[in-house]
């Protein structure tokens, strides 16, 4: 068993180097945008609108990557898809390093976003299919853990490295992933779906060790493997469309919690609380994310998925309600005007009011980030890797990833307009309401998958 665990964990580690690369992509813009806004070269200098696009164009690339990943994961397999996605990572950073104008920066970010979209789809599927039920939750949660570790790594490295050298550093994890994955097995489920039984047995022997009944597990997987492709009419089958609707809803609700909006204004909030070094503030936020995502990974196979979603949703609902209260107290009157961003809101407040309750914003931010990292950050990605039947896993996962990234783009780009329509405190109270809806949705529709094999989960949807 010790040998089995070591090799299984080695395969999982090789795969999660992809999410680590993904995290570096997301974290790269935070330390780099301030530098590029003040750079001497006018061809590379970003104005406010260009800075917004530099940060958000990644989400558009990732949405396209989600669609491409859904095709690749079923056509060429989980392992080869992961190896192929390292190429746009590296090439994207090469474009950024050699950039001579803003459009080259956009193109490089788009390529790294494309790779991130493929990664966010393929890695959860690969890990869920190589893991056994007792550790699948922990290993699946390591996907989000490595994402936030990558974000934190980019924040910390960005304190000392210039933007080109930071891009060089960010390209390393994907190169290492390409090397490691070349020695790892394909998933047994995909191999059996391709009628490669001997290779599937060999993969199980690598992942489980020599002293396990590989034939028994192989027969269990074969019983649920349906080798024919999926057609549109099959989406009328509840065993196909129910998990798809649950997965899409989880991705939608994850983004409408307001995570991107809150993180976007984190630096402003810390500055108002007298944290003058905004880069160090970002490191603090990143550290909170890493710590609580690690806690989620350690306890998820004991507590279950739904319990963490409940706790996470309640914490986020309370913290966003406190955010709204903070903005309501800081600007009780001015927020009624038509088009105010949060930055304007904070800076327009009287310094006395602002400083006296700035602790409320910091506490709210800390609670929100901790709550999200504990449940609604890692769990939706884990659940969508578990609930889809094998023959629909590629296309269903692609739909979920596309939903997530499109919503991430909309929330990030349209947040200012939402504030103009609802006011700052109204917007955060709307996020709080969505967090309450998340908890209700979890209670009625999300199945508990703790301790079940993928075949048992698929059978559950067929029965219901």
TrEMBL record:
<dbReference type="GO" id="GO:0005886">
    <property type="term" value="C:plasma membrane"/>
</dbReference>
<dbReference type="InterPro" id="IPR050549">
    <property type="entry name" value="MFS_Trehalose_Transporter"/>
</dbReference>
<dbReference type="InterPro" id="IPR005828">
    <property type="entry name" value="MFS_sugar_transport-like"/>
</dbReference>
<feature type="transmembrane region" description="Helical">
    <location>
        <begin position="357"/>
        <end position="383"/>
    </location>
</feature>
<keyword id="KW-0813">Transport</keyword>
<feature type="transmembrane region" description="Helical">
    <location>
        <begin position="106"/>
        <end position="127"/>
    </location>
</feature>
<keyword id="KW-0472">Membrane</keyword>
<dbReference type="GO" id="GO:1904659">
    <property type="term" value="P:D-glucose transmembrane transport"/>
</dbReference>
<keyword id="KW-1003">Cell membrane</keyword>
<keyword id="KW-0812">Transmembrane</keyword>
<dbReference type="InterPro" id="IPR036259">
    <property type="entry name" value="MFS_trans_sf"/>
</dbReference>
<feature type="transmembrane region" description="Helical">
    <location>
        <begin position="80"/>
        <end position="100"/>
    </location>
</feature>
<feature type="transmembrane region" description="Helical">
    <location>
        <begin position="395"/>
        <end position="412"/>
    </location>
</feature>
<feature type="transmembrane region" description="Helical">
    <location>
        <begin position="278"/>
        <end position="300"/>
    </location>
</feature>
<protein>
    <recommendedName>
        <fullName>Solute carrier family 2, facilitated glucose transporter member 8</fullName>
    </recommendedName>
</protein>
<feature type="transmembrane region" description="Helical">
    <location>
        <begin position="307"/>
        <end position="327"/>
    </location>
</feature>
<keyword id="KW-0325">Glycoprotein</keyword>
<feature type="transmembrane region" description="Helical">
    <location>
        <begin position="139"/>
        <end position="157"/>
    </location>
</feature>
<dbReference type="GO" id="GO:0033300">
    <property type="term" value="F:dehydroascorbic acid transmembrane transporter activity"/>
</dbReference>
<comment type="function">
    <text>Insulin-regulated facilitative hexose transporter that mediates the transport of glucose and fructose. Facilitates hepatic influx of dietary trehalose, which in turn inhibits glucose and fructose influx triggering a starvation signal and hepatic autophagy through activation of AMPK and ULK1. Also able to mediate the transport of dehydroascorbate.</text>
</comment>
<dbReference type="InterPro" id="IPR005829">
    <property type="entry name" value="Sugar_transporter_CS"/>
</dbReference>
<keyword id="KW-1133">Transmembrane helix</keyword>
<comment type="similarity">
    <text>Belongs to the major facilitator superfamily. Sugar transporter (TC 2.A.1.1) family. Glucose transporter subfamily.</text>
</comment>
<feature type="transmembrane region" description="Helical">
    <location>
        <begin position="418"/>
        <end position="446"/>
    </location>
</feature>
<dbReference type="InterPro" id="IPR003663">
    <property type="entry name" value="Sugar/inositol_transpt"/>
</dbReference>
<feature type="transmembrane region" description="Helical">
    <location>
        <begin position="51"/>
        <end position="73"/>
    </location>
</feature>
<feature type="domain" description="Major facilitator superfamily (MFS) profile">
    <location>
        <begin position="7"/>
        <end position="450"/>
    </location>
</feature>
<feature type="transmembrane region" description="Helical">
    <location>
        <begin position="163"/>
        <end position="184"/>
    </location>
</feature>
<dbReference type="Pfam" id="PF00083">
    <property type="entry name" value="Sugar_tr"/>
</dbReference>
<dbReference type="InterPro" id="IPR020846">
    <property type="entry name" value="MFS_dom"/>
</dbReference>
<feature type="transmembrane region" description="Helical">
    <location>
        <begin position="244"/>
        <end position="266"/>
    </location>
</feature>
């Amino acid at each position: 068993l010790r040998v089995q665990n070591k090799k299984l964990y080695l395969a999982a580690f090789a795969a999660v180097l992809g999410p680590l690369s993904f995290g570096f992509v997301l974290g790269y813009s935070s330390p780099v945008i301030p530098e590029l806004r003040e750079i001497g070269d006018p061809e590379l200098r970003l104005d406010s609108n260009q800075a917004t696009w530099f940060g958000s164009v990644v989400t558009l690339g990732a949405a396209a990557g989600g669609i491409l990943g859904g095709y690749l994961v079923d056509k060429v397999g989980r392992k080869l898809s992961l190896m192929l996605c390292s190429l746009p990572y590296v090439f994207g950073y090469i474009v950024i390093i050699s950039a001579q104008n803003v459009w080259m920066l956009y193109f490089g970010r788009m390529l790294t976003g494309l790779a991130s979209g493929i990664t966010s789809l393929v890695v959860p599927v690969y890990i869920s299919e190589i893991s056994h039920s007792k550790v699948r939750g922990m290993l699946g949660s390591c996907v989000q853990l490595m994402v936030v570790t990558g974000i934190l790594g980019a924040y910390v490295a960005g304190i000392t490295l210039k933007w080109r050298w930071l891009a060089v550093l960010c390209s390393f994890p994907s190169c290492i992933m390409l090397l490691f994955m070349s020695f790892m097995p394909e998933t047994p489920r995909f191999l059996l779906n391709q009628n490669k039984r001997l290779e599937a047995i060999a993969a199980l022997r690598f992942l489980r060790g020599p002293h396990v009944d590989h034939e028994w597990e192989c027969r269990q997987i074969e019983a649920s493997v349906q080798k024919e492709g999926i057609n549109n009419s099959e989406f009328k089958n509840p065993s196909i469309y129910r998990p798809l609707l649950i997965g899409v809803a989880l991705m939608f609700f994850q983004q409408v919690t307001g995570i991107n909006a809150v993180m976007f204004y984190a630096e402003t909030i810390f500055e108002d609380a007298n944290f003058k070094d905004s880069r160090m503030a970002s490191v603090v936020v990143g550290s909170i994310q890493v710590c609580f995502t690690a806690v989620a990974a350690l306890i998820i196979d004991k507590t279950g998925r739904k319990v963490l979603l409940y706790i996470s949703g309640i914490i986020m609902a309370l913290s966003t309600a406190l955010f709204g209260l903070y903005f309501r107290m800081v600007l009780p009157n001015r927020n009624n005007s038509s088009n105010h961003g949060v930055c304007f809101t904070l800076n327009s407040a009287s310094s006395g009011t602002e400083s006296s309750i700035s602790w409320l914003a910091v506490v709210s931010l800390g609670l929100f980030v901790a709550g999200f990292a504990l449940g609604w950050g890692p769990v939706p990605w884990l659940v969508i890797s578990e609930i889809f039947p094998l023959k629909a896993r590629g296309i269903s996962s692609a739909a979920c990833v596309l939903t997530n990234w499109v919503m991430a783009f909309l929330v990030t780009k349209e947040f200012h307009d939402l504030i103009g329509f609802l006011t700052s405190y109204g917007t955060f109270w709307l996020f709080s309401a969505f967090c309450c809806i998340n908890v209700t949705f979890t209670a009625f529709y999300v199945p508990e998958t703790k301790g079940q094999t993928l075949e048992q989960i698929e059978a559950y949807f067929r029965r219901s």
